[in-house]
Amino acid sequence: MINVNFETRINEARAEELLGQIKADPMGGWADLPFNFNKKELASIKKAARKINSESEVLVCIGIGGSYLGHRAIIEALQPRGIKIIYAGNSLSRRELDRALAEVEGKDFSVNVISKSGTTLEPSIAFKAFKDKLIEKYGEQEAYQRIYATTDAARGALHDEAVAKGYERFVVPDNIGGRYSVLSAVGLLPLAAAGVDVDALLAGAKEIAETLQRTGNELSKTPIMQYAFMRHDLGERGYDTEVFASFEPATMYFNEWLKQLFGESEGKNKQGIWPASVIYSTDLHSLGQFMQDGRRNLWETIIDFPTDELNAKVVTAVKKAHSVGGIPVLSLEVPSYDERGFGELIYFFEMACAISAKLFGVNPFDQPGVEAYKSELKKLMEV
Ligand code: PA5
To answer: Model-level pTM?
Structure first.
């Protein structure tokens, strides 16, 4: 179980109230995923993953933001042994799209296009390019058998196309938003195809989720509540930047997932903590100076995985040096660097983020600010 190295005083009734609000929220469906994942759906996910592995050398995962970062974070961190996964549709760079298209040249491949709305520009453009490539290589009929669409159950352009062309479909439930969707079909299909043990991932998530069922003044003592309230306290005391620090280079995308989760959930109404990240010891040689002695508006949250002896010494040295340098150093000890550990981490941060956003008085589940750039881009494209 994740362990935290700090203790803050929490009003138990407030913790219960916020947890109740999140579970009752129309967008709070993700909170129950580890408890009641639909067995039939899980079986279909695993079956599709086996089919993909049996007929392809590469799976192209097309999606952006919450439809992409969670599964990439776990795949990059665990380097499982299933099919090779490549990513597309997470930028509008033509150079990047051409690079991804070149990666499937001469190889058998399948495509998992993931978009809840089914209308996001980046994945739509990449999907068209890869669909054309599939059709060119296999002809229409086989191409459509190689496309897996994860989208809304009933609406949207991608849903309608998937129904019309007969793509295998997986659902992003109505009550789960993008950045909270990694433990739904959004994440589980690419993860299973990549060779990640999705049962162990869900079991890890369940283990930490069960701690929230504590009662009698115990909920406030759970690591999730401790961390959520602690970060809010720090924010109120003028620490406006949280630096997530990991000592494992392969967790770089996990940091990216964290930044999206917190940034999009909390940064509203001029509120929130700016989420930043570092990988040590690499970044001790670039940002280390600032961490040690720069402006004191930040704190560090160390994601402390079990590691080798030398790396463990670096962890100890960093904790000591940065504390002496005047940075609050929070440490989250993760029990294992595997599916269970990452399952715990995913749920831990999702729930802590939702609670923390509520403490800041903002809605953790919407993202009105993302629309501003979209409408500006739309205007330019209409010219
Ligand atoms: O977390 C979110 O809601 C966003 O990051 C979305 O996941 C992202 O904008 C992609 O949206 P969609 O899945 O509709 O293509």
So the answer is: 0.97
